[in-house]
Design brief:
The protein has 2 helices and no strands. The chain is mostly helical and 63 residues long.
Length: 63
């Protein structure tokens, strides 16, 4: 694995972990359906999952 692929793999892992952690915070806050933060957290999670997918695609493109 070249250095760029290795770095992208590392970044992908961090982004994936961050998405999971954000989702966990949203779940903990879900006890209050009127909590305005929950929607924002879900948006952030979706953006991170999209970023993770794009990073994996870029890694595959490197070969």
């Amino acid at each position: 694995m070249n250095s760029d692929a290795a770095e992208l793999s590392s970044i992908t892992t961090v982004v994936s972990d961050t998405a999971r952690r954000v989702a966990e915070v949203a779940e903990r806050r879900a006890t209050d359906p009127d909590d305005p933060v929950i929607g924002r957290l879900h948006e952030i999670e979706r953006a991170l999952v999209t970023a993770e997918r794009r990073l994996r695609d870029a890694s595959r493109a490197l070969g």
